Amino acid sequence: MPSVTLPCHTSMFRGVDVPRHGITTNIFIPLARPVPSLVDVAHQQGKRCGAFMNWGELRDLYHPASVSIHYCANASHEPRDDEIVAREAVEHLKAEPFDFLFVYFGRTDSMGHAHGWMTEPYIDAISHADLCLTWVLDALRESGQEVTVLVQSDHGGHERTHGTEMDEDMLIPWILSGKGVKAGELTGEVRIFDTCPTLAHLLGLNPAKEWDGRIIREALL
User: Fold this and answer.
1) What residues in the chain have per-residue pLDDT under 50?
2) How far is CA 142 from CA 87, 88, 129, 148, 196, in A?
3) Is 1 inside any structural domain?
4) Taking the mean position of all CA atoms in its chain, how far away is CA 5?
5) Does 33 map to a domain?
6) Residue 163 belongs to a domain with what CATH number?
7) What span, in angstroms and rounded, lies between the C-alpha atoms of 31 and 210?
8) Is 131 part of a structural domain of the chain?
């Protein structure tokens, strides 16, 4: 399992660790030394990007003009909340494909905070998120595109919180599959800010010079 440093959604999309971007809460603060996100770089290089989510704070992961579609249903406590995100993504996929698509299901995190990590409601939320992900993957297959999919969390958790250096908080799933990816299990460390340059490489993008993460080449063909 890769280790991460919180707050990890910013690191995941901007390719640098917390000391570089300086964001230590869920409130985005404009960076004194700006770092372009994966979505910004993809847009600048002619890629069509979309984002579907149910947590409003994620709107700060990229410049608003970098996505062709930004959909946010800002609720994540009921099963239908993840379902709405999945169905919107599917409908837009049917209309026109994306070069890069970000889909976020937030109910698992909400159940962790409400009931505790690894409790029955939390596990049920994971199972339901998996179902919602299946709908999106089925739509991608039906489109006939050869795609690469990365499934990952932005953090773990313990009891009803996260943000410490405990393994329960710091270790996350990082599952890469599809075009250009080797079958097998990674044995080396993957840091959450490695996600950005790895996906950029798979998209055929020139990386931003500010990114510190590395391409996880051992996962690639």
Assistant:
1) 1-7
2) 15, 16, 20, 14, 27
3) no
4) 15
5) yes
6) 3.40.720.10
7) 12
8) yes
